[in-house]
Specification:
about 110 residues; mainly alpha; flat
C-alpha cells in the first residue's frame, strides 16, 4: 500500500493534474457551461472530494489489513447481493408471465 496507494503521494498527483487545467478553467465555459469562477469552484470541490476519498479508503484498507477478521462465510455485501438477485429474478419472472398472458393476467394478486 505504501508504494502504490500512499494518500499524500496520490493527493499530490491529484493536485498536479488539477494544476494542468486550472488556468483553462478561468476562461473555458464549454466544458461546464458555468462562469469561470463557478467552474473553478466546481473543480475545487471535486478535487477535495477525490482527496477525501483517497484518505478514507487508505484508512479503511489499512484497518482491514490490521484486523482482517474471520475468513470464509458470507459477507454482508454478498448477502445483500443475493437479496437483490432474488428480486431481479422475481421481476424477470413477472415480466415473462406478462408477455405470455398479457399485463393483467401476468400480475400476482396482492391480497
Amino acid at each position: 500500500m505504501e508504494k502504490y496507494f500512499e494518500p499524500e503521494r496520490l493527493c499530490a498527483a491529484i493536485d498536479a493534474k488539477y494544476k494542468l487545467i486550472a488556468e483553462d478553467l478561468k476562461t473555458d465555459r464549454s466544458r461546464t457551461g458555468a462562469s469561470p469562477i463557478r467552474a473553478i469552484g466546481i473543480m475545487a470541490t471535486i478535487v477535495a472530494s477525490m482527496k477525501r476519498f483517497v484518505r478514507a479508503r487508505y484508512a479503511s484498507a489499512r484497518q482491514q489489513l490490521e484486523n482482517p477478521g474471520a475468513r470464509g462465510g458470507e459477507t454482508p455485501m454478498a448477502a445483500g447481493a443475493g437479496a437483490v438477485w432474488e428480486k431481479i429474478q422475481r421481476i424477470m419472472h413477472g415480466a415473462q408471465r406478462m408477455q405470455q398472458n398479457g399485463p393483467e393476467r401476468g400480475r400476482r394478486s396482492s391480497g
